[in-house]
Amino acid sequence: MSEVSQARLEAKILEAVSSLIVSGAIKNHNLSTLTSVTRVELAPDNTLARVFCSSLYDDASLEKSVSALNSASGFIQRRLAQVLRTKNTPVLTFFKDNSYIEGERINNLIDEAMKEHNG
Hints:
Blueprint: H1 3-23, E1 35-42, E2 48-55, H2 59-71, H3 73-84, E3 91-96, H4 99-118
Parallel strand pairs: 2-3
Antiparallel strand pairs: 1-2
Helix pairs in contact: 1-3
């Protein structure tokens, strides 16, 4: 599979999973509708997809949301099969993406250093 078609498939997966989260189609009280899918890494043979999620809430809320998504992965995969229309639908595994939180922490450190430097 070419890189372009793989990137297109990753984008479709990202969009479909995000849509399921926001619309409330995934019925789990631990899943926050403010959980966002940040990126998808698809295996070269399209059998596995690693889906990374982030949240504006605390880490505990994100952990619950990722756990809820992993519990609902079969349901999500069935809905994804309807959208992708490929021969095989990748098996989804969800992971926490702390890059937003880490980025905020680094920005705060930079701001503090600039304040100290400027007086």
